[in-house]
Write a structure and sequence with these properties.
Layout (H helix, E strand, L loop, with lengths): L33 H24 L7 H9 L6 H34 L11 H16 L4 H24 L7 H25 L1 H12 L7 H4 L3 H12 L2 H8 L2 H6 L4 H23 L5 H13 L3 H25 L8 H19 L6
Helix pairs in contact: 1-3, 1-14, 2-3, 3-9, 3-12, 3-13, 3-14, 4-5, 4-6, 4-7, 5-6, 5-12, 9-12, 10-14, 13-14, 13-15, 14-15
């Protein structure tokens, strides 16, 4: 029988420590020290900045980096290249915001649910947002992304609250297993209702399917700006839960023994997750694998300490999303492959590789 590595994040110190138990294949390499973690985080920020610049330069019409800098510092409306760069800025900003939100929320969701496969689907976020958008199109005739935002956000928030309330029923409260089961059951029901509407209205299907694919193309500032306050509040809430998630990772009984109010803790963290996932899904559509793959990948550098996992996920997730978007722009010229499809194509094999290695830090 294979013995898994047992880890526990220390409550003391600024960098956190991890205790690892030697398995049958010998001791696994522990997480990097605090200084190395900081260096890796800085390197990730540099990579993200490079990709942001590449996002402004690369596309069906390539722009030299020097021209990109000129467009940002001394914009000339009569210059066609400058106009292209400025047209790509909202797309790049949305990639940064949505990617960071999904990575941060995915890491927190895995900590709250103590489920390594947790992603926006486990709380019904994607299903709730999708049904709300379909309802907005079918009933209210919504036809713009700025209109989708509010329906998607409300649907995601309501679905997450319903999942949590259902999972909270009973003596033990919202346990990880009950959260997963409630989320799966609600998602199945909501998607069934959505399909009933779609098969009865071709016009609704035609409008909905572009949003459903998920991506950052075709959005402008009218779509991006309304979501920024929600993302900011959600990010602050989740980033402040690192120590709390470390306690929850030890189990509910131990967390209570350490003075945590488990139910309230999960509810507050879930609020931040809903704000992040709901807004990101509303802005960019349901983008898969970002919130699932990135937290697993960063654990190879951070270990099980959520005080490091959360900021690493915040930076690494938009790296994946921007890279997927850039590749999607050039892989089938003159057309594009939406970022939501590219993240699945890139993320799925990476996730399988991470799982097969089987040496990552536990939750």
């Amino acid at each position: 029988m294979t013995h898994s590595t047992t880890t526990a994040a220390s409550r003391g110190g600024d960098t956190g420590t991890a205790v690892q138990v030697k398995g049958p294949k010998g001791p696994s390499r522990g997480p990097a020290s605090g200084g190395k973690r900081a260096a890796w985080l800085l390197a990730a920020v540099v990579v993200l900045a490079i990709l942001a610049g590449a996002s402004l330069a690369i596309g069906a019409r390539g722009i030299p980096l020097g021209t990109v800098w000129e467009a940002l510092t001394s914009f000339d409306p009569a210059n066609g290249d400058h106009a292209v760069v400025h047209a790509r800025i909202p797309r790049t900003v949305l990639g940064l915001l949505a990617g960071g939100a999904l990575g941060l929320a995915g890491a927190a969701m895995q900590g709250v649910a103590r489920n390594p496969l947790a992603d926006p689907g486990i709380m019904g976020v994607n299903a709730g947002a999708a049904l709300a958008v379909v309802t907005g199109i079918y009933v209210f005739g919504v036809a713009t992304f700025s209109g989708y935002i509010w329906f998607a956000f409300i649907g995601a928030a309501v679905a997450a609250v319903v999942v949590y309330l259902i999972a909270s029923l009973g003596r033990d409260g919202a346990t990880p297993v009950k959260l997963a089961l409630a989320g799966a059951a609600l998602s199945a029901g909501l998607y069934s209702l959505m399909n009933v509407i779609l098969v009865s209205s071709q016009d609704t299907l035609d409008r909905f399917r572009f949003w459903q694919v998920g991506g950052v193309a075709g959005r402008d500032w009218s779509v991006v700006i309304p979501g920024i306050p929600f993302l900011a509040v959600g990010a602050v809430i989740v980033l402040l839960t690192g120590r709390i998630l470390n306690s929850l990772a030890l189990g509910d009984d131990i967390a209570r023994g350490l003075g945590q109010r488990v139910g309230l803790t999960r509810a507050v963290t879930a609020l931040g997750i809903v704000l992040l996932c709901g807004t990101a899904t509303a802005l960019a559509g349901p983008i898969a694998f970002v919130g699932l793959v990135v937290p697993h990948a960063v654990r190879f550098l951070t270990g099980p300490d959520y005080r490091w996992i959360l900021p690493f996920s915040l930076v690494a997730a938009p790296v994946l999303l921007l890279a997927a978007d850039i590749i999607g722009r050039v892989v089938l010229l003159p057309g594009e492959v939406p970022a939501g499809i590219m993240t699945a194509l890139v993320g799925a094999p990476v996730f399988v590789w991470l799982i097969r290695r089987g040496k990552g830090a536990g939750l």
